[in-house]
Amino acid sequence: MNGPPDITEADIARLVDRFYGRVRSDPALGPVFHAKIGADAAAWSAHLEKLRRFWSAVMLRSGAYHGDPFTAHLRLPGLTSDLFEQWLALFDATCRESFPPETAQAFSERAHRIARSLRMGLFERLPAPRA
């Protein structure tokens, strides 16, 4: 199965564009993204295209994304564990405003699983074993 049948590439593009428009103006999240991507329209366009491919791979199993989200987030200056909650709250609200409940829930569930995995890997590492 390729995910909920009512999700299209156009839906994903619309969600990504709307959500990251909000991220850019968010007082907590915006500075983290601007520090990495900048304010250049071409840089943001390339980043949004990458994010569209990521969500296409996640939701439609399209195979469109071939990156490494963990490494990308590992190098983000200013990223804290608390920012994941803000990101998720904004993402969930954007999904609810953009889709019927079942579709919004499908996006949100996947986003929460991905965020949990990233947060654990980035901020909740176990200490190295003692020699």
Give an overview of the whole structure.
The chain is mainly α and 131 residues long. The protein is 70% helix and 0% strand. α1 crosses α2, α1 crosses α3 and α1 packs across α5. It is globular and about 55 Å long.
Distance between the termini: 47 Å
Largest sheet: none
Which percent range fits the helix content? over 70%
User: Which secondary-structure class do the elements indicate?
Assistant: mainly alpha
Shape: globular
List the uncertain runs.
Answer: none
Write the element-wise H/E pattern from the N-terminal end onward.
HHHHHH
SSE topology sketch:
Layout: H1 9-25, H2 30-37, H3 41-60, H4 69-74, H5 81-98, H6 101-123
Helix pairs in contact: 1-2, 1-3, 1-5, 5-6
Task: Provide a short characterization of the protein structure.
With 131 residues, the protein is an all-alpha fold. The protein is 70% helix and 0% strand. The longest helix is centred in the C-terminal third of the chain and has 23 residues, at 101-123.
Please tag this protein with its features:
mainly alpha
